[in-house]
Amino acid sequence: MTDDEVAQFIHQESFLNYCFNRNDEDVRYWEKWLAQNPEHVLQVEAMKQMLILMAEESRERLKQQHFSELQDRIAQSGQRQIIRKIRIWPRIAAAASILVFLSIGGYFLLHKKQPPQQIAQNHQPEIKPGGNKAILTLSNGQVISLTDAKKGKVAAQGNTIVNKTAAGVIEYATTKENSDNAVQPIYNTLSTPRGGRFEGKLPDGTYVILDAASSIKYQVNTTGKDRLVWITGQVHFNVTYDENHPFYVNVKGQVMKDLGTVFNINAYDDEPIIAVTLEEGSVSVSKGSQSVVLVPGEQAVTKAADNAIRVQQINVDNVIAWTKGQTSFQNEDIQKIMREVSRWYDVDVEYEGQIPNRQFDGSISRNANLSDLLKVLEFDNIHFKVNGKTITVKP
After folding, report:
1. What CATH number does the domain located at 325-394 have?
2. Taking 80 as the threshold, does the pLDDT of residue 365 lie above it?
3. Kind and range of the H or E element at 250?
């Protein structure tokens, strides 16, 4: 409740009648209003108690003041004057009490800080989730917003046309062969901002889904034997197998070779590891002199500092939940969760104080507002404050 709203409250006669129980109709009105606006119950009750307290203090001060005045008058006047003063005292006291109560009491109430228990309440901001947003950068440097592009033909490059379907997916179609384009490779880059997600088919038919703050660079035309792509962020692949044209993914010096595969790669710069998770088929993961072949349900984990590849069993459904419109966490710490929150909800995250050392579990639709996600994760003892696009996290 703002200072202006508080000022309106304390200058309403009906509200004062409610606080001091002076009018049954006004009391019923405000009780009904509070039942319809429960979020203001604590603040209204605090105002009520403060007004009653200040009224009592004002009356006491006025009594003492008038008692002193009466003592002075006794020394200067006879009994008759004293009796007259005593008779008019109740009216003077009542009027002065109201004036002092509305001026001094109202001033201190408007400038009084919130009670500590209200400051400590968890503030969960209404921040909306991301959506389908992407940028396509052509080989000539032209940038196309796929978010704003209408369905149909989006661009043409040599013998290749880029289309956007009614479902919002991009697809490549090849026209008649062109010998010049067959020799000169053409590359496109598909990228998403924070708060963005996109999916589509690469020219070879491979289906990709890009998470927020991710990119994939790929060749539009076929000029050699291998199909090679470069990625950042998180990308899910459903590769069209072609024995004569192997499919490779390059990310930070690590290479994945498809052997007829559906897999997920998480390689964000702010994550400590690169994780390759196999959903179907088979994939080879290589880094330096090390190489492993994964089977479904396995995840290969590497770090930037060395070439070691660690293979572990993983719950694939949790890893790929994002591709199905879900946010899922299992035994994750708050820093890990807030990194994903930062990317998907497009907010900057700052920490104050000591961060709780505990694990969180939960799953919720990616269409949910941030406050709903925090409720599912039971962040009941962690507080959030939003300033522009910066969210402050403090215990």
Report:
1. 3.55.50.30
2. yes
3. strand 247-251
